[in-house]
Amino acid sequence: MIERLIRWSANNLAILLIAAALATAVGVYAAFHVPLDAIPNLSDTQVIVYTKYAGQARQVVEDQVTYPLTLWSSGTG
Does the pTM exceed 0.70? Predict the structure, then answer.
């Protein structure tokens, strides 16, 4: 089977070169016409954390509640 394929390929070199050129042209065309959203988003995942601590200043809530909570949830704390 493979010998027949190789023999046919050797005898029909022009057809193979045309097919290879066509495949290359289709690939180049496809590469330039792929939409930009096909590129994966490699940025870090972001989560917004809202915390309420009645009667406390924003900085106190940030330092005592929000920051430790974000460290714990990211696995680094």
Answer: no
